[in-house]
Every structure is written in structure tokens, then in C-alpha cells.
Amino acid sequence: MEDSEGSNPYMSILKRLASYDYISKNYGSSGIAGAFFIAIIIPTFLSILLMGKKKAKQRGVPVQVGGEPGLAMRNAKSARLVEVPWEGATTVAALFEQSCKKHSSYRCLGSRKLVSRDFVTASDGRKFEKLHLGEYQWESYGQVFDRTCNFASGLISLGHDVDTRAAIFAESRAEWLIAFQGCFRQNITVVTIYASLGDDALIYSLNETQVSTLICDAKQLKKVASVSSSLKTIKNVIYFEDDETATDSTNIDSWRVSSFSEVEKLGRNSPIQARLPVKEDIAVIMYTSGSTGLPKGVMITHGNIVATAAAVMTVIPKLGTSDVYLAYLPLAHVFELAAETVMLTAGACIGYGSALTLTDTSNKVMKGTKGDATVLKPTLMAAVPAILDRVRDGVMKKVEEKAGSAKKLFHIAFNRRLAAMEGSWFGAWGLEKQLWDIIIFKKVRAVLGGDIRFMLCGGAPLSGDTQRFINICMGAPIGQGYGLTETFAGAAFSEWDDPSVGRVGPPLPCCYIKLITWEEGGYRIVDKPMPRGEVVVGGCSITAGYFNNEEKTNEVYKVDETGMRWFYTGDIGRFHPDGCIEIIDRKKDIVKLQHGEYISLGKVEAALLSSNYVESIMVYADPFHNYCVALVVPSRPVLEKWAQENGIQHKDFSELCDKVESVNEIKQSLSKVAKAARLDKFELPAKIKLIPESWTPESGLVTAALKLKREPLKARYKNELEKLYQ
């Protein structure tokens, strides 16, 4: 895997964890002997006396609802759908104002001040920026609310027409959230756009929604200026100040360009009465980085947002003002926006960081200085599965490089904890757990500050192995969520006391989840041992549809005879006996081969990703053939290490990927993991092509949540795919 600032920024997390020497070199023989003694002698008789079969907790229960026939579930805790976190909080504006008043003196938003920056030159001549960041500087809920009101007034004084839309096109930061909330004080719909979106999609999104005010950061200001001639409706541009703001990029004759602080000052000097929304009003048009074609704008109401926040509040235990949330994922993604809304609802504090400064050895952190997690010491954070998978792989790679007792000690500790979590050994809880944590896992946890008590995971399925690894090494339960932009992330969420893996929990209290038979794919609600079918979500979190796209809206949104909205996800799920749902497939990922076999591309990719050689993989199946093929982005350090050990000469990584020996080695590895995953013969790619370039959100080949964008990938590698079928 190439570790550069120009590639996927989330991989900087891996760099820190992969290089962390979490097993002490100074255990000594007595310490190791003591650990072995603990592993053997901790009271076995307690496991016999105290362990017993617990009755499975019912987390979801069947419910009779309208719409298309199927099997529907609701959350077992709530007979009625939850719409608001408390009475009166029916809109995002009301929720935010009430929470700010309730938690006025508590810390709200925190940012790190830039102390200095420097540039270092790599061996290949490339220059990398390094930052020295100071401590977090905090603003209280009361202060943030005042800034929000000032920005709202300043926006109107600036000349923004309240009947037009504003867009935010920037990396996550405190001002992003202040601008977002400020727009709602004047019932202005916000268009959110990924900072990594390409020029064509950016122009399309802004023109389609007829945005008149654009809010961006300095980096995006330059990008927007370069395409200004293509933007038809923008009149005002507001930029977040930082040291990189270029004055010449603000000289655009047709726009009024102002700094964020200027707009705040304008509003502070000329307050304007709030013009507040109602719950049916559109709060956000969120452009997805969808896997096909141009992005779609999902229309999200105020009621959708507060319903999801209210529902998640019931799931995370003891959520409150003592919690510290590390925010580094893009706020333009529904997962992060939902998470931060929950934090504001609870009165927790939000500290902003970035994937490039997250840990002490992240790409942009100056040597000898601290990363965001070390300084902030968060109790809560969110992650997408691709990040957690690489966390696990990086730490395990470092473990395998250890020799002798240190390596053995880690595996003993891990296996004891794993056995305890899976209910087969009581001794690895209690005192023994604390001792293992002190000896082994405390060193790993320090990478993320050492105080993480709960992690939120979403965006894609999380493997069971990775979930267990994070549970043990980070010492925290994972709330694995399932949702879409179209449900404002609100669909299902695994509960903190659910030790199972591979599932996404019961329906959130704000919605129902229904399975509907899909005959063509062979998924039926009468299947044994568990009912299966397409996942359809209905209730308070279901959004209003796609902006300016009635045809697509009518295709996937339905309204039943009671007036309830349902969204047809295209995902395939199955209900477990306790009412929890597991996502097992996706309709669009299923291809019928020439001889009638069905191949699930997503399932095969998930299995093959477990190969150490694979950083990314896209499986492709042509229905006119009886086999599949694959594009594989190899893990650079793993493949280069293999080449060195086997005397494979090459000038650069691209040439190494073209070597027949490399292709054969990776094919053998894929064959092994396919066998372990019990894939059928036709599911193993018959031919592969090694791709030397990483797939990143910036390249447009994966989404912000690192999911494959199949159509752009197929278009980019059309010639390579055709050659694989020759």
C-alpha cells in the first residue's frame, strides 16, 4: 500500500497502528511467567459455577404494518415510533437551540491551533507537509449558539435570498457545523457536497440546486474559482479563513466574496429575527457519492434528522456531557452528520481533527508532536469498516514480526479474551481481563487516546474478525449501524450489550424494517432457518426523495395506505430469531453467469479482501461467460517484500504488478482464502489484473466511505477487463 498524502488520507490511521510497538520489550521473564500463570490458574471453577446459558434477549419484534406484503420488525423497546428526543425538538433548529440553552456552559466545539508547518522531502523527491498543532481550544454551547445566530443574521445582511439555497463545500471543521446550523435559523436549505467531489459532479450539483451562496474553505475556494464560468446561479461566496487563503483567488468579479468572520461580524452588528422551519421543511439536499453516474441529491427533512438523533440516543449507553467525540470523517456524509447531531443532542463535546493528523505518526503530524487522538482523548469516535480492517491488519502484521515470548503473550491474551467474549470461558473476564489490559492492550489503546468506551461503525458491512479485534484491543463495544442517505442513516443499530458479530442490530426506534421476497434472486421470507428478502425501511427517518428526479424517486420510494413512506434499499437481509437483521447481499451485485449460476460480487470481494496481498479488489462478471475476473490493487509493502525475498527484479511498482510471478503469487493467495471462505469454484476469479494505483475518494473510484464505485471503475479499466475475457 502506497502511503502518501496524495492518496487515501484514511490510511494514515493504519500507518500509526501498524508501526506502534504496543508489546513492551521489557516484560522480563518474571512478568511473562506471571502472565502465563494468570492464563492457566485464574479460577476455572468460577466459569463452571457462574456461566450458564442466558436466555437470548429479544431485540426486535414482529409488527403488522401497511404497504407491500412481507415480514416487518420494530425495536422491542418502543411500541411506537420515536420522532423527537424531547417534546418541542421537532426541527434541527429547535433541537440545537434547546440543547445549547440546556448545556450553555459545557464545552461544545473544539479545534486545534496551528503552531507551525514545515515541509520534508522524501527519497523520491516528493515534498510532504508536516504540521505542529497545539492543544484543543474550546467554545461552549452558549458561545457556539451566539456565533450561529450571528452567522444567520450576517448571511441575510450579505444579501442571501432566503428563498434560495446555500451550499457547504468544505472539509469537516467547527465552522462547517456553525454555518450549517446558522442556515436553519433562517429556514435556508443546505446543499452538502463532498470536498473530494470532481469538477463535473461539483458543477452539476451546484447548478441543479441553483445555489446562490456557497460556503467553502480556502482549498475549495481555489477549486471553485477555477470553474466559476460554469456556475450559473452563485452570487455570494463565504470562505473559512486559514493560513492558506489566497487573496488572488477571491477576486471573482461576478461574486461577492467574504470571509466567515466578516459575515459573523456583519450579523453581530445587525441582528435579524429568526425565521424558523417546521419539521416537514427540507433541511438538507445531500449529494451522495453514489456508485453509478452523476450524484443524486437526497432531500432530507428536519423531521428525518431529529428522528434519527432521538433513536440513536436510546442506543448508546450513558451518552452525555462527559463524552468527548473525535470528529474527522466528512460532514457531507450522512454517517458523520448524523453522529454529530446525536452528540449535540446529548450535550457532548466535539473535537475536530483529520485523518491526516489523527495519530502521533499520521502523515501530516510533525515528528515529536502529538496527533489529535492523543491530545483529545476521546471517549467516542466513528469509523468506516475499511479503516478498521486495516487497523486490524496493521497491528497483526506488527505482532507477527515480533519474536519469541512477546508474540506468544499477545496471542495468549487475545485468545483468552476472544474465548470470553464468545461465552466459552469466564476466567478471561474480571481480574484477568484487567491484567491483560494493563500488560498488553493498554499500549494499543493509547494510539487512540486510551479512553475510547464506544465506537460507531457504518458505511459498509464490518467483518466479524475485525469487530472482535476492536472489541478486544481497543476495549470498546462497537455499535454497528445500517442506514443510507435516503434513511438519514436511521435504519438499524446494534446494541452495546449484543456480543454477536456480523449483524447490524434491530430496527432503530424511529423506523420499521421489512423483508420482501425477491423470487428472481432466490430470497424468500419463508426461507429456513431465517426469513430472507429485500430490505425495505419505513417510518420517520425516510427522506422526501431525490431532488429534481421524480422518476427515480417513484422507483425506490413508496407510500402505503396509512401514509407511511417506505424506501426500497436494494440490499438483501435476513432476520435472526431475536429480531436483529444481517445484511447478506445486494441486488445490484448479483450477476447470472452463462450456465445459470448466480454470483454475488460483494460477497466474493469481502472474502478475497482477507488476503494479505489485497488492498482493494473489484470482481467483475460478464453474463456471457461462465467465470468471473478481478481487478486487484495489491498491498505495496506486502508484494514488494515478497519480491525481495524471491529475487524478483523490477524498476518500479508498476513493473512489479505486470510480472507473471506477481500475478501467480496473488492468484494462489486468493485461491487459499476462497477455499477458507468456502466459495464455489465459479466464484474464484479465473483471471486477475494487478493495478498499481490505489483507489481513493479523490480519484472518484470509491465513495467517501471507501465503497467501490463499479461504473467508474468499469469505465476506467474497460480495456483491462476486456483483455481478461480474451
UniProtKB/TrEMBL annotation:
Stretches assigned to the AMP-dependent synthetase/ligase domain: 130-547
A Pfam family the protein falls into: AMP-binding
Top-rank taxon, per record: Eukaryota
Transmembrane residue ranges: 27-50
Key words, A-Z: Membrane, Phenylpropanoid metabolism, Transmembrane, Transmembrane helix
GO biological process, one term: phenylpropanoid metabolic process
Cellular component annotations (GO), alphabetically ordered: endoplasmic reticulum; membrane
InterPro entries noted in UniProt: AMP-binding_CS, AMP-dep_synth/lig_dom, ANL_N_sf
SUPFAM superfamilies with a match to the protein in the record: Acetyl-CoA synthetase-like
Pathway: Phytoalexin biosynthesis; 3,4',5-trihydroxystilbene biosynthesis; 3,4',5-trihydroxystilbene from trans-4-coumarate: step 1/2
Molecular function as annotated in GO: long-chain fatty acid-CoA ligase activity
Protein name, UniProt field: AMP-dependent synthetase/ligase domain-containing protein
Gene that this polypeptide is encoded by: LOC101264646
